[in-house]
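Explain my protein.
***
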Amino acid sequence: MAPILERPARSLPGVPMLLLLLAAVGVAIWRFVLAVQAADPLFIVGWLLAGVFGFVLLIGLFMVEPNQARVLTLFGAYRGTERRPGLRFANPFYAKRGISLRVRNFETGHLKVNDQEGNPIEIAAVVVWKVVDSYEAVFHVDDYENFVHVQSEAALRNLATRYAYDSHGAEDEKSLRGSTADIAEQLRHEIRDRLEQAGVDVLEARISHLAYAPEIAQAMLQRQQASAIIAARQKIVDGAVGMVEMALARLEEQNIVQLDAERRAAMVSNLLVVLCSDRATTPVVNTGSLY
């Protein structure tokens, strides 16, 4: 993160100042009434000005809620940030802008982008963030909330173009769908780098929506189904070969029947058909000879 430019503001506890100012205004009003009764113009003006001054000082009271800050400026000059919660008192001429320090989150819209392979996809993300430097949030960018939204969507678009939607079976290839933890961490770092100048820290960023665009969704679904069928067939064939190998080894080990090369090949073929077929097979029972 960039060096923090925010600095604490100079302010006083608000409750004692409130009581003191109320007492001072009360005394000024009482003495003003006495001056009017005594018809003393000098005291009338003096206590009137004292009462007005007391009311002006009351404007310097302001409230700071938990996890909120007040950015204080005097005629455009930054005078500090007050983070201490409760009623506070500062120069009544300070402009006091409230800014939330709470953890916030938002979801980007469903963005339509092209992945690394050029396939149009729809993607969205949830970003969890908070303000850590009120000075940068207020003075470095025009609207820090809008800045967070725009830069988060830009980072998400950039990330989506660097990876394919799916790895298509490659174990070492990262993809948007298969490497969710790595993609989320990269997205968080990229958004954080973009929002650093706005005094915002990104706590978490995760993809919340990922799908092919409607115009190619059906074709990609067929492709995924074909890949799944091929993978399943490979496992079936591997298992069937192992079972055939085990069956032949057991027959030879226990000397149940002696098979020549031709009969051995026929048995292997029949067993593979039975084991690899996706439909129930109809066996033919041989009762006329040994084979």
Remarks:
- The helical segments are 14-38, 41-58, 134-139, 144-160, 180-195, 214-253, 261-276.
